[in-house]
Amino acid sequence: MKLRICYIIAISLIFLTACKGPGGVRVIKLGHGLGVTHPVHEAMVFLAERVKEKSGGEMIIKIYPNQQLGSERELVELLQIGSLGMTKVSSAVMESFAPKLQVFSMPYLFRDDEHRDNVLKGPIGKQLLLDGEEFWLRGLCYYDAGKRSFYTKTKPVESPADLQSLKIRVMESNTAINMVKSFGGSPTPVSYGELYTALQQGIVDGAENNPPSLYTSRHYEVCKFYSINEHTAVPDIMIISTKVWKLLSDQEKQWLQEASDESAVYQYKIWAEAVEESLMEMEKAGVTIVYPEQDGFRASVESMYEELKVAQPELYAVIDQIRKQP
């Protein structure tokens, strides 16, 4: 804990955000943990370009990829104190800061892609983007993070029974932990940046993620089995520190929001292309890709919904709204 506090203070002193430089140019720093070949990073570059174009160079987004400024959770904490302007975060990680976003981590929440898009682009999704404001975090837009499935080192996962005794890396998300437990696996939180080594050393036997992330991280070099059971469709969220947001003029807010919305449209397009390319390239590299029946997986996690209905009725009410969305 002391190390984390020292880290945050040190970064705070170095990276002052949303400052105005020479000529009155507004500069906002955006940090994230993905590599520069990832389609989400490409969307952020697009966002920065659109902000610069819209503002005529009066507003600049500087991007720091590859965990240069810290892990995903550390970056969120830097936003909370206003020492970093923006970051991309998985809504699974955000549930620790904005509890209602936990709903997106629930397995098999969406019926299909159309249902998911209607939820995220409609009133429910827009309201949830603002759920973290009391925790100094404001959502600007959603990015497609695809559907998460299991990849493993020694055997494919064709049913929940195949997860028995396997240590599966999960994000720092109670929902993800409970999901893997429901499937019969042993959930093991590991930082994304440390996962390749953890797989190599046997600290974990596998993990779960979408095709582009599995490909760009090169985890497929260690894990030769990819079982596409698509248990969750957890969106990414582009967030800004409310401390930084409040410093912006109405015009600057408009530029940034419009650019964010446009970047989301662009990201959805290149994401679909990246999924196809990733699966093709991994097959070429010798990865065995299987498509297990989902019924057994769905049945294994139904108890999570029943428990949530009793333990957190307000949260379950949001899920009920989502399920009723056309």
UniProtKB/TrEMBL annotation:
Checking Gene3D superfamilies in the record gives:
Bacterial extracellular solute-binding protein, family 7 (3.40.190.170)
Write out the GO MF terms: carbohydrate binding
Q: What's an example GO BP annotation here?
A: transmembrane transport
Gene Ontology terms, cellular component aspect?
outer membrane-bounded periplasmic space
Respond yes or no to whether keyword 4Fe-4S is given for this record.
no
Output the InterPro entries linked to this UniProt entry: DctP_fam, TRAP_DctP, TRAP_DctP_sf
Q: Which UniProt keywords apply?
A: Receptor, Signal
The cross-references to PANTHER family, in alphabetical order and at most eight, read: DICARBOXYLATE-BINDING PERIPLASMIC PROTEIN (PTHR33376:SF2), PTHR33376
What's the protein name?
Tripartite ATP-independent periplasmic transporter solute receptor, DctP family
| Native source organism of the sequence | Belliella baltica (strain DSM 15883 / CIP 108006 / LMG 21964 / BA134)
